[in-house]
Amino acid sequence: MQAGSLRCLVKGKAADPAAVGDASAIRRFNAHVYGDPRVESVILPTADGLTLARKRSPDDER
Q1: HSE of 36 in the Cβ direction (CA atoms, 13 Å)?
Q2: Domain count within the chain
Q3: DSSP per-residue codes, 1-62
């Protein structure tokens, strides 16, 4: 299983559609991960947020 994590909320700035800089990049990353059917992900609202993602195995159910 492959997995990863990323600081994801940037003090709430990444939630703003008008985000700029790092917050904009993190917003795009989160959207990309969310939209990829090969990946299972969750955002944990601890500290500055944490995106956890793992590659689905062919046997995973939706």
Answers
A1: 15
A2: 1
A3: --EEEEE--GGGGGGSTT--HHHHHHHHHHHHHHH-TTEEEEEE-STT-EEEEEEPPTT---
Residue 32 structure tokens? 């990309």
Query: Quick check: helix, strand or coil at residue 5?
Result: strand
- Note whether residue 61 is domain-resident: no
Q: How far apart are CA 14 and CA 32, in angstroms?
A: 13
18 inside domain: yes
60 in a structural domain = no
- Convert the pLDDT of each residue in 13-38 to its tens digit: 888 889 899 889 988 988 999 899 99
Q: Which domain holds residue 11?
A: 3-55
